[in-house]
Design brief:
The complex is a heterodimer of chains A (145) and B (397).
Chain A lengths: L1 H17 L21 H21 L5 H28 L9 H42 L1
Chain B lengths: L2 H14 L1 H39 L3 E5 L3 H10 L7 E2 L1 H8 L5 E11 L11 E5 L11 E4 L9 E4 L10 E4 L2 E9 L9 E5 H13 L13 E2 L1 E6 L5 H11 L3 E5 H44 L1 H9 L4 H31 L3 H8 L8 H29 L7
Parallel strand pairs in B: 4-9, 6-8
Antiparallel strand pairs in B: 1-11, 1-12, 2-10, 3-4, 3-11, 5-8, 6-9, 7-8
Helix pairs in contact in B: 1-9, 2-7, 2-9, 2-11, 7-11, 9-11
The chains are: A mainly alpha (145), B alpha+beta (397).
């Protein structure tokens, strides 16, 4: 499960990091006016880099023993936080242009929100699976005793 | 056998043969996705065309010669544009006493520029408040008591109204007195004003260095004249009468504009219907074949169940419930995927298609979702029915 989470996280981080500079581009500033959305790409890139690092750890981690359970929950929790941040960048954290037909409002904002929601769902699923595995491990340990 | 026991047995089947069930769920997911997105697109296109017909209001439009395609661009595709006639055309229409004209209203067009980061070109339309019969009936939200006063504008549904209720054009602020209902056409990005305000806008544009056409002014020129035809006359008759009386004008029947959009969409919508039917039949066939093989594969298992006391009816019920669970999971996945893709990007989709495109309202969406969920849910049990029905038809016990 952690590897699947990690791969999904890598894909989401690439789209969230590269997208706002390419096909999910925001508006450009011009004629002395600054677009409200101008900081969305950099914020998204920083968040994507953090997510990429967490996902890499998730894929290659070999946590053993009692430390593994805590580490898994930390990774899941960080995933949820990053998902909330991704969702928040175009909404309550930075925001985008108000006009419905601006590209940042039509495309960038919904894309980042969806990526954030998917990440939250995957991380929440990770929490559920890890909790279940923990209970099974504890059950086996009790049985052995 | 209780429902819980059924579900536990089905859960063990799914966990034992995950790949098969993932494949079945994927088939229903595709069915649900295609059905839902197809029906949303079809209904949105229909809504857009119907709204365009309703919003036209006028039966005929008089524009300068050769400007028919530009008019289509303004009304249908949302491509701002402008052109001008001499205002004396209005006088000529009245003086010629042309048969069949019920109402007549002039409009003056301007276009704002893209002024930088956050401005999009906006179509301005100046109207005579006392003559107009096409804009005022569509006012949805009125922000002040009197609309279209000097210095105020009425905006289309897509234009964002700031909190202070004022929008800036060409460096000057104009109060938004009302907002129009959504139409899914180019008029959603238009702003309407009276002739005094459009004169002010024109002067503001010129002061900013924007020129439209040399020698044009609001007092002596008009962009288009909208005509409502009297009962008992057809637009074609009145068009002929106008052409006979006055030369050098393009007279457009608005119905023909909507008809041409409709006919170009007809083939597309037909192909979409055919695609939906083909996908549905294909899904049923695939599900039927896989369920049949799956039942055949488990004949021994079912015989064992029979031998320990399960009735044929219970086993058939188990198979149909299995099919229902598969359908339910596939339907849920398909509906969620489509909702995540289509609804957040609906503005981008309607912008990209450049034809009247109006998403269904809430009751419409509820009907579409209910229909799609219903069809997808029954696809599994319907496919599995024959296999389940034939099982243990002739009992040897």
């Amino acid at each position: 499960m952690k590897k699947i989470q990690g791969i999904a996280g890598v894909i989401i981080s690439i789209v969230a990091g590269v997208g706002p500079y390419t096909f999910l581009h925001v508006c450009g500033s011009g004629m002395g006016m600054e677009a409200p959305c101008k900081n969305v790409p950099i914020a998204s890139l920083i968040t994507a880099i953090i997510l990429f690092a967490i996902s890499l750890v998730s894929i290659i981690s070999g946590f053993k023993g009692g430390f593994k359970e805590s580490a898994n929950f930390v990774i899941d929790g960080l995933g949820i936080v990053v998902g909330v941040v991704l969702t928040g960048i175009p909404t309550f954290i930075i925001g985008v242009c108000n006009s419905a037909h601006m590209h940042c409002n039509m495309v960038t904002k919904p894309a980042l929100i969806i990526l954030g929601i998917i990440l939250i769902i995957i991380s929440a699923a990770g929490v559920l699976v890890d909790s279940k595995n923990n209970i099974q491990v504890i059950g086996k340990a009790e049985a052995v005793k | 056998m209780s429902v819980l026991k059924y579900l536990n047995i089905i859960k063990s089947w799914i966990l034992t043969n995950r790949r098969r069930y993932l494949g079945l769920i994927a088939v229903v997911t595709v069915l649900g996705t295609v059905l839902l997105s197809g029906m949303i697109i079809i209904l949105s296109l229909r809504n857009g065309i119907n709204c365009l017909e309703d919003r036209m209001g006028a039966d005929l439009m008089i524009v300068p010669l050769g400007e028919e395609s530009k008019t289509e661009g303004i009304l249908i595709k949302g491509e701002p544009g402008y052109y001008y006639l001499d205002k004396d055309v209005t006088e000529k229409l009245k003086d010629s006493d042309i048969e069949g004209i019920d109402k007549c209203a002039g409009q003056f067009f301007l276009v704002s520029s893209n002024q930088g980061c956050c401005d999009i070109p906006v179509q301005f339309i100046g109207i005579d408040k006392n003559e107009d019969f096409t804009v005022l009936p569509w006012i949805k939200k009125t922000h002040s008591k009197d609309v279209l006063t000097d210095g105020s504008i009425v905006v289309g549904s897509d234009l964002d109204v700031p909190e202070d209720g004022r929008i800036r054009f060409f460096g000057r602020y104009y109060k938004v007195s009302a907002q129009l209902e959504e139409t899914g056409t180019g008029l959603d990005q238009a702003a309407f004003s009276n002739m005094t305000t459009i004169r002010d806008l024109y002067a503001a544009a010129k002061s900013k260095g924007f020129t439209f056409i040399d020698g044009i002014d609001v007092d002596n020129n008009i962009s288009t004249i909208l005509i409502k035809v009297k009962d008992g006359y057809t637009p074609a008759e009145v068009k002929h009468n106008i052409r006979a009386a006055i030369d050098g004008l393009q007279v457009i029947e608005t119905k023909s504009m909507t008809n041409s959009v409709e006919s170009s969409l007809r083939t597309f919508v037909l192909m979409l219907y055919i695609l939906l039917i083909v996908i549905f039949i294909l899904s049923l066939v695939i599900l039927s074949v896989v369920f049949k093989l799956s039942v055949y594969e488990r004949t021994t298992q079912f015989a064992l169940m029979r031998s320990i006391g399960a009735s044929g009816r219970q086993i058939r019920g188990l198979i149909l419930t299995e099919a229902l669970v598969v359908s339910a999971l596939g339907t849920l996945t398909g509906v969620v995927l489509t909702t995540l893709v289509v609804l957040p990007f609906k503005t981008a989709i309607s912008s990209a298609v450049s034809i009247p495109f109006l998403f269904p309202d809430l009751p419409g969406m509820v009907i579409i979702y209910s229909l799609v969920i219903g069809i997808s849910l029954v696809s599994g049990p319907v496919s599995a029915y024959i296999s389940a029905h034939k099982l243990f038809k002739s009992d040897v016990f």
